[in-house]
Amino acid sequence: MRLAALLAALRPALPLVLGLSLGCSLSLLRASWSQGGGEELCLGAAGRAELPGVAQPEAAEAWPGQGHEDFRPRIVPYYRDPNKPYKKVLRTRYIQTELGFHERLFVAVLTSRATLNTLAVAVNKTIAHHFSRLLYFTGLRSAKVPHGMVLVAHGDERPIWLMYETMYYIHQHFGSDYDWFYIMQDDTYAQAEQVKALVTHLSINQDVYLGRAEEFIGGDEQARYCHGGFGYLLSRSLLLKLHPHLDSCRNEILSVRPDEWLGRCIIDFLGIACVSQLQGQHYRTYELAKNADPEKEEEEEFQAAIAVHPVSDMTLMYRLHKHFSRIQLERAYQEIQELQMQIRNLTSLTPAGEASLTWPVGINSPFLPKSRFEVISWDYFTEQHLFSCLDGSPKCELSGASKADVSDIIESALEQLNSRYQPLLRFSKRQLLNGYRRFDPTRGMEYTLDLLLEAVTQKGHSHVLVKRVSLVRPLSKVEIIPMPYVTEATRVQLVLPLTVQDLDFVSNFLDMYAMNTLDTHDNALLTLLFIYHPYDAQRVSQVDVFAGVKAMIGELEKRYTEVKIPWISVKTEVPSQVKLMDIVSKKHPVDTLFFLASVWTEINMEFLNRCRMNTISNWQVFFPVHFQEFNPALVYRGEQTASSSTDFLRDGHFDRHSFAEACFYNSDYMTARTKLAADILDRDEVLESMEVFDVFLHYSGLHLFRAVEPGLVQKYALRSCNPRLSEELYHRCVLSNLEGLASRSHLAMALFEQEQANST
Fold it and tell me: By its UniProt entry, which PANTHER family does this protein fall under (predicted)?
């Protein structure tokens, strides 16, 4: 009995005891295997095990503990000399620039004055939109350069001289910016996507001279040069090594063909010959016969070619592009079908099973709103009218891009129906009964169509039926639009117009300006515009309405001795934004970056940096949408104002009716203003109905970037709307005041409490 009781007590601990025993036994057994039964190994000076009688290979030097200090992560402590004055460190905006990354591919096309307007144009229309940088090189420049082409003329039509100058130009201007350089002729058709895919699979650490390898005439059989007609690829490292020898090659190497001359130069001075395959990648080419028809070329070598040569005319270039584009499209559709099949097969193995499969397969599921305010509404349309108009009207004519979109989606629906039911049924459209569409930011544009169709059978019998179809136009590949490079070091000139109604808010503006720009030594200056009413201007010698503001400016200039805050006095009854900017623009250089502010704006460094980055000279202007806080009397109703970071941007809205804030360069404003002056002639009264936004919108070809700006927060204030402004400006001002009172829920609660108080 005692033994049974002891076993019962030890039974819970038996798995633990057995596990520990088994672990110790395996550890001892492994230790005996590691030590072995022979003599012990001796460790060399470098820490490696040396076996007697066995020579150590050279590769053994690469021991992890020796000679690999560069690959070990180390922390570099930050130290700043306290004796040196503080200096703001300006870092690059993009990590790619700071780390020294290069762009991937640069393309150079060799052309001539005779073929610039024919073959070169065809090359530009077929491949230019696939490459981020493409330049055309020619000897003599024609009278007119085709639109959309960047041309470099060297002034000499000799082929060898053209090649020499082209290589020298590429190294001088782009040698430090790109990893790969693809050089082709204008009588070559190249599949741009395959060229881009080729360089993504090649290592940039090697000297690459890749193309169609050809033998020199009467030369060494082992040496090869790349045929220029089929294009060739050079790595950045090879270009850097070749550059010092270009002058020697020009003086010492005699050749008729420029591609042979370049190949001989690379072979003689670098010892690198042309290859047609490298690192498992093949550069496939196809030599096109005379009078060949691309549609009838069925050889596998032609279908897989990266480059085709020679192309005799523009029509043949476009036919080749059509043929290879169709091949790529078929491959893409085939790949999509294979991926959809794989998704279906894998979905059955997931915990949710086939219920989690979305339609269309592979496209993101529709957006699921968390509240009724996030529901995406559907827009109703017919073939003639749209019932959701931009101007707010209930019904408008379907035209332009919307009409083309509706026509295209109806044709796609019929095509899909016929492909599914043919040859049993063939559908034709009689009428679009109802159409609905909405834009889902997670997947694209969704459509629901009620179609009145006529279905015809194989025997010729017809029947009219109504069928509802759903379609999705998914979001395509996202592309990064190349933009000019800008930095955060640009000086910002703040312009603040002030009227008598703004005097109560000037003190807070100046305090925020001093704290966020002057104390932090930000590169931002301030200019004030004192807008006097004619009555106040007459009494300025006795009573200056802006005397208090001028005293505040004097105090700031005493506190910050290196800062000067100028002001400009203007007399007008109607403070037109355009007229005020005309005065300021004449007093500043053309390269000045203006930030047109309002007295309720709270200046901060975060927004000023975005103003610098989003405003690009001769390219883009920035009109931020500030965040307007609601009336605290309606929102909090006597309660304490929420000040935690979690409540930031909660009790307010982005005021889309206000265009008071703007960032733009003086040169861009002067250019647009000149066009406006030529349009309105001497009718200055037109300027009273315009804002700076209207000037850039109608009289400049710049990008107008208007976006919500969370860093631009304004406290609630009831704006005074000048009735002498235009009807549209006055209406926008009134709407801004009304929508800035409170949200609908806050207004409803205020009305409810008022009714409760009145009832009691």
Answer: CHONDROITIN SULFATE GLUCURONYLTRANSFERASE, CHONDROITIN SYNTHASE
